[in-house]
């Protein structure tokens, strides 16, 4: 199963492009008609009531999947420590039913890898699919990969110019976030870059979730559609002459 979509859907910058002629109340439904998954971002900033999740479920096709971004109260304020109560409240609010996909934990760039802290955090998670996106170089550590593998938690393979991009596959599914290769949240991915990511997905040979976060100039939905077209027939490709090959994702 390969699910490709965007990180969020409420972007005024898409109004005159992907959403041209579509009223704002139809934006989610319109995007969901074209992609197979979307990351819910609002859950990161503010607690969402179950009624919001039920509303989003009703606006999307039967086979649709949502990833949900875990609250910054847990990742950025509490920094993964003493999170039992907010974790229970967050998980209890999710009302996505069979449309719920992985929960994403995006870590702050100042948070260093601490094996004991991460061990306790992962042990506190209820059953489900989870992905961790670190943004500090200290996570490039075999102990981190081994810990995620033990809990079947996916390391997020991300692409961005401003924080470490660590390629590792640590679970029975893969999770990818493409933030813009050259300019954060802006750069569109060209054909060669999309071919490269399609090749990686093919090589991993497992359930894969991919989210384009290059939203500011409206590239995300178009890149998602282009990668979707490639993903069904992707195969490993040689690097172009004069261009060094990218690192392959390491199993962990």
From TrEMBL:
Report the transmembrane regions from the record. none
UniProt-annotated stretches for the region Disordered: 230-252
Q: Which Gene3D superfamilies does this UniProt record tie to the protein?
A: Protein of unknown function UPF0759 (3.20.20.410)
Q: Which InterPro entries match?
A: DUF72, UPF0759_sf
Q: What is this protein called?
A: DUF72 domain-containing protein
Natural source organism? Lentzea sokolovensis
């Amino acid at each position: 199963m390969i699910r490709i979509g965007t990180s969020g859907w409420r972007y005024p910058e898409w109004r005159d492009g992907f959403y041209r002629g579509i009223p704002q109340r139809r934006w989610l439904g319109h995007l969901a008609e074209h992609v197979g998954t979307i990351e819910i971002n609002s859950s990161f900033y503010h607690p969402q009531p179950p009624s919001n999740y039920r509303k989003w479920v009703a606006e999307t096709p039967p086979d649709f999947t949502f990833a949900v971004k875990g609250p910054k109260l847990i990742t950025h304020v509490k920094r993964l420590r003493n999170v039992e109560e907010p974790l229970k409240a967050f998980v209890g609010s999710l009302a996505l039913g069979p449309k719920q996909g992985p929960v994403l934990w995006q870590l702050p760039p100042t948070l260093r890898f601490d094996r004991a802290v991460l061990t306790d955090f992962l042990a506190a998670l209820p059953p489900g699919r989870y992905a961790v996106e670190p943004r500090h170089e200290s996570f490039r550590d075999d102990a981190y990969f081994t810990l995620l593998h033990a809990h079947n938690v996916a390391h997020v393979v991300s692409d961005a110019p401003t924080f470490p991009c660590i390629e590792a596959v640590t679970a029975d599914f893969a999770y990818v976030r493409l933030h813009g290769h050259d300019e954060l949240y802006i750069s569109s991915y060209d054909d060669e870059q999309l071919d490269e990511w399609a090749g990686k997905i093919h090589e991993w040979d497992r359930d894969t979730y991919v989210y384009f976060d290059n939203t500011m100039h409206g590239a995300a939905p178009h890149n998602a559609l282009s990668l979707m077209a490639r993903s069904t027939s992707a195969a490993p490709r040689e690097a172009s002459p004069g261009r060094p090959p990218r690192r392959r994702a390491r199993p962990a």
